Queue: 3 jobs
Job 1
Amino acid sequence: APSDLSSQLESLREEVLRATGDDCLYFYPFSALHCTVASLLKFTSGLGKHLAKADEKEQTAYIDKWKALVDKVYSHKDFPRKPAKVTFQRPELPGTTAIILIENQGKEVFQIRDLLKQECKEPPDKYHLQINIPEITHFPNIVHSSVARFKSPPKDEKKFREAFSTAAAKWKPVTCELSEIYLTVETVPYMHMDKSSAVKKTYKLDEKSTKSD
């Protein structure tokens, strides 16, 4: 399934470029393709900016607190215990970012989000160092992957969006298996980082396990 996704995204990029001659849309590296269950600490928040400049000891201590919170969610009786089916639908370009809506018939992603929301009512160190932050977490209300964004305004926006829609109409839905989620630290914007260094903990959707790796 991943190869079907990558090949179709590449075909989409090439067709739009051929039709418009306008290289204004930057497609993310396929290795960066992901679906965000939740942003536990937004990098745009005051606390996020503070921790980005903090020393490694302080960063590690804070990450460990989030690990403990997610561990608690993972051990909850309502956490999904088997792999979920997800289907990548036709790409869309609603604004400045191209996205793919993901159909999750079993609602496992929403189930995990709800459990996280319950635990994140008072996130760890919400008022760390006297920084008053009403909302440091973010829970999307859709299941999606961002695949591209404008790096410059299109020369002819109407023509460009029409070309994108025409190319996207050829998309064939791709069904994959969601077998694990990750607690990651975003070291660069848009999650374009090496997975081996970004992933701090792995949580498997496995009925045989209630412990994370």
Note: The first strand starts at residue 25 and ends at 27.
Job 2
Amino acid sequence: YYGKFVKDFSKIAAPITSLQKKDKKFVWTDKCESAFKNLKEQLTTTPILTVPDPNGNFMVVTDASGEGLGGILLQNNHVIAYESRKLKLHEQNYAPHDLELVAIVHALQMWRHYLLGKPFELKTDHLGLKYIFTQPKSECEAAKM
């Protein structure tokens, strides 16, 4: 729940969430302690989030890495919400452009209640994805995602 209020929540919490795996022994390390303190600091500091205007224009900014993916929903350059998650096991083998596309799809699914039926701006740092959005659907395999 708190992930939407903290930028890079899943990345920060990764040492702690990795303790939940069945096959892993629970060992609280210095990395876990550091992550816990960082999250506590992030959650007790007032976030600068804005209440969305349903009639305003939205911008979605996404990014992906070898560890996770995330996005920011903005309106008038003010943060409405953050979203992030760790990569699923099978996603860890994806090529970078596929991960960037997964990040976009994930963000759009999370914020569809804000975005459906409205024009919005989408920003990603992966230039190769611009090609996907300029091709007819029949020519683009990635459009099936």
Note: The beta strands are 58-64, 68-75, 78-86, 120-124.
Job 3
Amino acid sequence: MMGEEYDLVRLGEHLETEYDCHDILSATGCPHILEIYGCSLRPRLYPPHLGYLYMEYAEYGDMQDLLDHLEKNPGKQIPEPYIWLIFRGLLEAVFAMTCGTAISKNMPSDESGLGLEDRFAPGWEPFINTDIKPENIVLTRSQDGYYPGYSTAKMIDFGIALTESKFESSEIKVGGIGTLGWGPPEHRTPADKWNTKYDYTPIHVHSEIFNVAQVVLSLMEGQTRVVTDKERREQRMSHAPDYKTAIRPSLVYLLHWTKKGLENWEQAYGSVNKPEGEIPDIAKYKFNKNETMLKIGEVAPSHWKGLQRKRRIPEEEALQPPIMEKRPRIKQYVPPQADVPNDTPKPPPQVTGIKATLMTVANFIFPESFRSNEGSQAGPPAFNPPTPRPADRRLPSGAPKPHEQPGYLQYVAGMGRGEKRIYVQPSPASQQVLHPGPYLPPGQPVHTKYPSPPGPYYLPGHHVHPGTPSPTEYPLQPMQPFQPSDDSDEESS
């Protein structure tokens, strides 16, 4: 089972809470709560992040798949004994959440709960699952020795299952809890006009019974019985003159009568506690295994070969930030080929299409401003170099390298994981020669008219043309005493 969340911290907390609750309920030994084995968190480069719960394999899918199949095939219906078994199984799961122990199949002896007086586990605080619905009920293989011809219904998804004491306050219901359309009226506050008297009704085991009844009603009718429209909910509840939680059937009462209901059916039509091949035709139901999933260690069917993966890669990529929203990289300037000394400029590209038409019209209207500069000594050159591009040009095989020609430099720039050798054309370096003179000794104050050292103009980080000595190659000249000129004496006087 997988969950998604954009907040990694929130996902980790929710995953840990759900796993702890599910693990505690699995330890009760109830056969109608799916076993859980572990959980893991998978952070991703871009949200949403993923959380995984590792549970028992449910080979027949969930109950919503069963209802969808019935809606697509109106002539089919679920056999009555199987509905009794599902009804009883869901109530056993509610009993395990309430008491902390599993109930045997032959209990209780009567509707008063005879034999269940001491079924509470020591120190157990009841759990309330407010999200019981067909999507959270899976179908697994049958139980050993107990109606082997039918799959077993088991509850999952205890993400919003809390202890009973946490539901005593009405603040937890603000905005609604559980899934809209599934659950009793006391699940939501503020309430619609049809359930205002349930605003301060606490959520307890009677609320779970309402959810279970909705699921069973959907199985009986062969369609999903969920109402999310406000007006339809009001119309439905307006027919209930006194809709109180106290008059709902108790858990013990329903456990007894679901057991009796299956017994009464078998007395009329025969036992169905048999393998699938021995069940009467009126009680058979063909279950389709979920062929889109495999248990660990199984071999995939041969007809899977060539099928595309189920996950849609484009949808996952759509969750990532678009490239255009990222900060653009600073492009490295590479002078065009025409800027190289002694290089013959290429002819300008011929202008055609709409641009040529607009230029012709503009030249006719403003002849002085758009006069061609061909043959003129003034103005810009005839060929304008293109916009600078990144240094991504590559030399053809066998061509002379640019650094072997005058005016070129070679340097190594790190790109990607390794270093790639890239050849670029440098901007012409200044060859300004300043006035020669001696170097200043360390600590000597600088005079405004003191001459600068010889050599080309050089600053750290600037490249020097091949063949030009660097400043460190100039020999140091001996220091000479400073002698002010006549102009300096006049100024000082």
Note: The mean pLDDT is 69.
